[in-house]
């Protein structure tokens, strides 16, 4: 079974206003792309207000949401109105039984319904994200790409990152490289390298005769740290400088100690960036990072 979920007390979370203040500080420092992720951001009450505030930042060029898709059917129109440009949806399987097992309580039908509602809203792009494991969904990668092609979605396949201690599978035995996935897809699809870029770590291929692009995020087999200009802010306000390292700065503490002083917040961000690690050192059988992706953001 997946790792047990625990939820943080509200007092430990940044308020939406504090998150908007952090986003504003980054924007004033030159950041022009923001992605809101989780956990699952759409379960946060009044989350549309955060998107609206962020989308109004004059320098922001792209506002993206990463979601599990469970709330899209009811919230996609409001998200479009609030200024969200692109949506990424985590979708590891199209098997309803397996989907429920992996998500604990999730209903695949609701996610697929949400995707169709979102498609009608006219977002600039909708992309599926799938983490591939050998005995879990490696045999479904062609089915997932076919689904993406039928709906004009893009899709990214992600090598599992060794974050958090787990018991349900042996990471080294279950690991599937991007190269293996590409070889599997080549048996069914005609695909070729694409020069499409999002500014992120994905390397894309184009499916012939389709608008669908296939991305590969390969933290193990193709270290992309030299191209990384990303940082993450957790729901607690921790500025995480790298997924594969523990360095962080508590921006929530900075805000609460200096209410209304954005310059001090910006100074804290600039100082933190100077200690951003050169690279990560993931080993499949040697977990050094104890936090899970659901507490970091994908």
TrEMBL record:
PROSITE patterns: RADICAL_SAM
InterPro entries in the record: Aldolase_TIM, MoaA, MoaA_twitch, MoCo_biosynth_MoaA/MoaC, rSAM, rSAM_sf
Ranges where the Radical SAM core domain occurs: 1-192
Keywords recorded for this protein, A-Z: GTP-binding, Iron, Iron-sulfur, Lyase, Metal-binding, Molybdenum cofactor biosynthesis, Nucleotide-binding, S-adenosyl-L-methionine
SUPFAM superfamilies for the chain: Radical SAM enzymes (SSF102114)
Domain of life: Bacteria
Cofactor(s) listed: [4Fe-4S] cluster
Protein name, per record: GTP 3',8-cyclase MoaA
